[in-house]
Amino acid sequence: MKKPIYTDKELLELIAQDNKDAFQELFHLYYESLARSLLRYSRDPEQIKDWIQEISLKLWDQRATLHLAGIKNVKAYIIIVARNFVLRETSKKKQIKFISRDELNEADIADNQLEEKFAHLELIKGYAAALANLPPRTRDAFYLNREHGMTYSKVAEKMGTSVKTVEAQISSAISSLRRQLISFF
């Protein structure tokens, strides 16, 4: 693999200036890592290519609203965005296929994959700790909405509160999680 011309930070700065070439370079740089991380959700190479294309289009369309300068670990950021995208897509279709640990162990695992797994585990630990720091009702509202896919109105009904309260709690949870997890990016 050839050495990149720009650093991740330089690429992010160029992307913030609407530079499509920089965006393509960034995705080319992390394409393999991203594809490997998506193997957890599908073994179909065409599905993975489609997801990556949709993710890249979504990120390009949202580049103006993303806080690119605050991203510390671009690779981890892209992988997390991809994971969240795939989880949302697959939960809509209810077709999520997790690969067992045995299947993962049988796959060829390169050194950088081990690093990715370690970073991912650290992020999961940080996420769990950040969730634990949320007030109980806020955590419950967030969990029901994000982890169980319930709508705000369903969450409000289940918790015996108003939709506006649920919206405020989830917004508060997202802000708190973002602040606590910023060091991972």
UniProtKB/TrEMBL annotation:
Ranges for domain RNA polymerase sigma-70 region: 26-94
Molecular function as annotated in GO: DNA binding; sigma factor activity
UniProt domain RNA polymerase sigma factor 70 region 4 type: residue ranges: 129-173
UniProt xrefs under Gene3D superfamilies: 1.10.1740.10, Winged helix-like DNA-binding domain superfamily/Winged helix DNA-binding domain (1.10.10.10)
Keyword terms: Sigma factor, Transcription, Transcription regulation
InterPro entries per the UniProt record, alphabetical: RNA_pol_sigma-70-like (IPR039425), RNA_pol_sigma-70_dom (IPR014284), RNA_pol_sigma70_r2 (IPR007627), RNA_pol_sigma70_r4_t2 (IPR013249), RNA_pol_sigma_r2 (IPR013325), RNA_pol_sigma_r3/r4-like (IPR013324), WH-like_DNA-bd_sf (IPR036388)
GO biological process: DNA-templated transcription initiation
Family classification: Belongs to the sigma-70 factor family. ECF subfamily.
Protein name per Swiss-Prot or TrEMBL: RNA polymerase sigma-70 factor
Gene source species: Adhaeribacter arboris
